[in-house]
Design goal:
alpha/beta, 20 strands, eleven-stranded mixed beta sheet, four-stranded mixed beta sheet
C-alpha cells in the first residue's frame, strides 16, 4: 500500500481547503445547501405537498413544513420501499439504512440516495482523514489497511416489484464503496457483511491478524469483543504486538468516555490516536478536527441543512427552531435536519451542545428519549457517562455496559436511581464505586444535587452487578445483536430495566 499512500494522503490534504471554506463562511454555506435541497425536491410528491416551488426563505420553509419524526415520515418511506419513486427525493432510491437506536422491536428504514452516499457519507469519510492528516502530517495511516467493523445487509423483500436493499448503514456504505476504497480496508466483504455476529467475530479475528492494520473503525463495544478474541488467538494482551503500525481508532455511535481507559490498556502504544465521529443512518454530521480536544466540527457542506430545537420547545405543537447564528454555547438542542436523502425537518432524536461557535463544534449530549427526569433531576447521558468514568477510575473498574432507570416514590421510601452495570473488571470496592458515581453526578448536575440533598427526594443510587455477557445475550434474544443496536443508557421509565432484570434472573435459574 506504500505506492498508493502518497497520492491518497495528498488528496486528503487538498480537501482541507474546502473544509476551511465552510468553517469560515458557515451561514452562507448552509443557505446554499438549503437552496439546493429545496430546488432538487420541488417536483417530488413531498415537495408539491408543501409548496417547495414557492419557498425562497428559510422562515417560509419553517412555516410550511412541520417537524417530522420517523412515524410521520414513515408512510412516504414505506411507499418508496415498495418501489414508488419521486416521493421524497428526485432521484431513484434503492437502498435503506436499517436503524435501531434502542432495543425497541420496531426498526427504522432511512432512505439512502446516491447523493447522500457521495456528498454526505463518503465525502465526510474523506474529510475525517483530511482532518487527521491536518493534525498529523507525517502519518503513515495509508501504508496499511483499515479494519472496518461494519454491519450486515440483506435483500429487501417487502415488495415483489421492489429492487431495494437494506442493512446497517456501515454495510450499505461497504456494499456501494468505490473499488479503491475496498483496496485499503479489511476484512473481505464476505466476512464484513455477515449477519451472525458470533461467527462473524470469529472469522474476522482469524482473517485480520496477519494483515498490516494501521487504523480501526467501529463502535467501541464490538471493537473490544474483536480485540479480546484476537488476544486469545495470538497469546498477547497488547494489540500493538499484533499490529505494530496501528495508529488510529475512529469511533462513534456511543460516548467514548466510559471506554477510553480500557482502550489505553488494550492498545499500549505511545502514538496511538483516537478520533471521534458522529455518523448516523440519517447523515454524517461531524468529526473531531482537533484530535485530543473536546468538540466535533459540524460538517456544513455535505447535503444537510441543520436546525436546532431548544429543549423547552420539544413536544410543542409548533416548536421553534434556531439557525447557526442563533445558537448558544453549552445549551442542549434537539437536532433537526433536512437532507439529500429525502428527510425533511426530521427530528433525529439526538441532543447536542455547541462547544465552539467559530468554527461551529458540537458534542452529543444525549437522546431526546434517553434521560432520567422522574423527579426534576434532568440527568442526561453525558452526565451518566462522566460519572461512570470517574467511578471506574477511582476503583480500577472497567465497565462493559450499563443502563439506569428511576425508582419511584412509595410508601416505603423516597425515589432514586437504579443501575444495572456489567463489568469487564469489577471495582475493588463496589460501595466506593457507588459513592463516586453519586458524588460526580452531584458535582456536574445541580438539579441532581438538589434532589439528593439530605436524601429528601432521592436516595443513594442502587447498583446491580450483572454477569459479564448479560447485555449481549439479552440483545441476542431480541434479535438485536450487532450492528448499530445498543443498550439505552438512561430510561425515564422502568420498562427496559425490569425486562433486563427478569432476563438475568431467568438465566441464573436456568
Amino acid at each position: 500500500m506504500r505506492i498508493l499512500s502518497p497520492a491518497i494522503s495528498q488528496l486528503a490534504r487538498l480537501r482541507m481547503g474546502r473544509i476551511a471554506y465552510f468553517m469560515q463562511y458557515p451561514v452562507q454555506v448552509q443557505q446554499q445547501v438549503f437552496q439546493n435541497l429545496i430546488s432538487a425536491a420541488q417536483y417530488t410528491e413531498f415537495g408539491k405537498q408543501y409548496g417547495f416551488s414557492k419557498i425562497y426563505k428559510i422562515d417560509e420553509y419553517k412555516q410550511r413544513v412541520p417537524i417530522h419524526t420517523y412515524d410521520t415520515i414513515k408512510p412516504y418511506i414505506q411507499r418508496t420501499m415498495e418501489g414508488q419513486q419521486n416521493v421524497l427525493w428526485n432521484t431513484p432510491i434503492k437502498w435503506f439504512a436499517k436503524s435501531s437506536g434502542t432495543t425497541a422491536d420496531k426498526s427504522k428504514f432511512i432512505p439512502v440516495t446516491v447523493e447522500s452516499l457521495d456528498e454526505c457519507h463518503y465525502r465526510s469519510g474523506r474529510d475525517v482523514i483530511s482532518l487527521y492528516y491536518n493534525n498529523f502530517p507525517d502519518s503513515d495511516v495509508f501504508t496499511g489497511k483499515s479494519l472496518v467493523i461494519g454491519g450486515s445487509h440483506q435483500v429487501n423483500k417487502l415488495s415483489e416489484n421492489s429492487d431495494s436493499y437494506f442493512g446497517d448503514l456501515s454495510a450499505v456504505m461497504l456494499q456501494n464503496m468505490p473499488f479503491y476504497g475496498n483496496m485499503i480496508r479489511t476484512p473481505d466483504l464476505e466476512i464484513a457483511l455477515m449477519d451472525e455476529w458470533e461467527e462473524k467475530i470469529e472469522r474476522m479475528a482469524n482473517a485480520v491478524i496477519h494483515e498490516n492494520v494501521t487504523s480501526i473503525a467501529g463502535v467501541p463495544t464490538w471493537t473490544i469483543v474483536l480485540i479480546k478474541r484476537i488476544f486469545e488467538l495470538t497469546g498477547t494482551d497488547n494489540l500493538a504486538d499484533v499490529w505494530p503500525n496501528v495508529e488510529l481508532y475512529m469511533h462513534g455511535g456511543v460516548s467514548f468516555t466510559p471506554y477510553r481507559e480500557q482502550f489505553r490498556k488494550l492498545i499500549r502504544k505511545p502514538l496511538m490516536h483516537y478520533q471521534e465521529t458522529y455518523n448516523a443512518s440519517e447523515g454524517f454530521f461531524a468529526a473531531q478536527d482537533v484530535i485530543g480536544e473536546e468538540g466535533l466540527l459540524l460538517f456544513l457542506n455535505h447535503g444537510i441543512f441543520y436546525e436546532f430545537m431548544p429543549m423547552e420547545e420539544l413536544g410543542k405543537e409548533n416548536p421553534e427552531t434556531l439557525q447557526l447564528q442563533e445558537v448558544e454555547l453549552g445549551k442542549n438542542y434537539a437536532l433537526v435536519i433536512s437532507t439529500n436523502g429525502g428527510l425533511w425537518r426530521y427530528l433525529v432524536g439526538d441532543t447536542i451542545q455547541f462547544t465552539s461557535l467559530l468554527p461551529y463544534r458540537i458534542k452529543v449530549s444525549g437522546r431526546t428519549k434517553s434521560f432520567i427526569n422522574a423527579f426534576g433531576e434532568e440527568v442526561i447521558v453525558e452526565n451518566s457517562d462522566t460519572a461512570i468514568a470517574k467511578a471506574s477510575e477511582a476503583t480500577g473498574a472497567v465497565v462493559n455496559d450499563y443502563t439506569a432507570a428511576p425508582v419511584y416514590f412509595s410508601d416505603h421510601g423516597n425515589g432514586g436511581h437504579e443501575w444495572l452495570i456489567e463489568f469487564g473488571v469489577a471495582p475493588d470496592d463496589i460501595n466506593k464505586f457507588t459513592n463516586v458515581l453519586d458524588s460526580t453526578l452531584k458535582t456536574i448536575n445541580s438539579d441532581y444535587e438538589a434532589k439528593r440533598y439530605k436524601d429528601i427526594a432521592l436516595h443513594m443510587p442502587q447498583i446491580h452487578v450483572l454477569p459479564e455477557g448479560t447485555f449481549c445475550e439479552f440483545l441476542k434474544s431480541k434479535g438485536k445483536l450487532g450492528g448499530q443496536h445498543k443498550v439505552p443508557r438512561l430510561n425515564n421509565d422502568r420498562n427496559y430495566l425490569e425486562e433486563i432484570l427478569k432476563f438475568a434472573a431467568n438465566n441464573m435459574n436456568a
